[in-house]
Amino acid sequence: MLQHDNDARIICGESLGTMRGLATASFDALITDPPYCSGGTNTTDRTSRSAVQKYVSSDSASGRAMPDFPDNRDQRSFTIWSSIWMTEALRLVRPGGQALVFTDWRQLPAASDALQVAGWRWRGIVVWRKPAARPQPGFKNESEYILWASNGQIDRDHQPPYLPGVYTQSSPKGKDRQHITAKPPELMRHLVRTVPVGGRILDPFAGSGTTGVAALAEGRRFLGIEGVDAYAKIATQRIADQLGTAE
Fold first, then answer.
1. How confident is the model at residue 2 (pLDDT cuts 50, 70, 90)?
2. pLDDT band for position 175 (50/70/90)?
3. Strand 27-32 and strand 200-203: pairing?
4. Exposure string (b/e) for 9-29, b if CB count within 10 Å is 16 or more?
5. Within 10 Å of residue 203's Cβ, how many Cβ atoms?
6. Which CATH number covers residue 147?
7. What global pTM score does this model have?
8. Residue 65 in contact with residue 51, Cβ under 8 Å?
9. Which ranges does the record mark as transmembrane (predicted)?
10. What pLDDT, in 10s, does the model give residues 111-129?
11. Which domain holds residue 108?
């Protein structure tokens, strides 16, 4: 375990197995960016290439090698696996808590089905528009999506801010890109604002720790789980840096 204090920590381990060892209803929200197992037009393409091969291109690479991560399930196994870990996440998030889960256009139907099979109450979709997406014949694939759900009815005494349903922000570039599929820190800060101040956020696929950094910046607590040791170390250092900034 890689740990700094009770406000935020990273556990280096397999997500589902680690989640099964955590206490029921010990979190206020699930905010996570799981592997999409996407990035191809057919099953062979999606399951035969590494994450680096699928998601890092010459126009977006940072000029340095980034660690790979498992991303090779086909559509059927992705749906079943997602419903399993999302069911476990429902146990961990208290009644009235919320979930925000990233996906892309290929896995949007599978991920939304899995979320509802797991017992979450479907609430909507947030659009993340990426203006720097590469052009292609026909329509440009310039959006990813955030599935919004709750564990039953959202707390009636919790008054979250009014937030946009569409965000236009570019992915991190250069030295700011610390993960193959890094998300913009400002976008993540908006998402964590749905959680009550002081609330505890779970991210079972923590990557380079952007959700944790955003949580600390917005006065929330955080537990991240990351299965790739190299990314767990990056996330731990980023959280330590953020804690130092806040002191």
1. very low
2. confident
3. parallel
4. bbbbbebbebbeebeeeebbb
5. 27
6. 3.40.50.150
7. 0.84
8. no
9. none
10. 999 999 999 999 999 999 9
11. 2-246
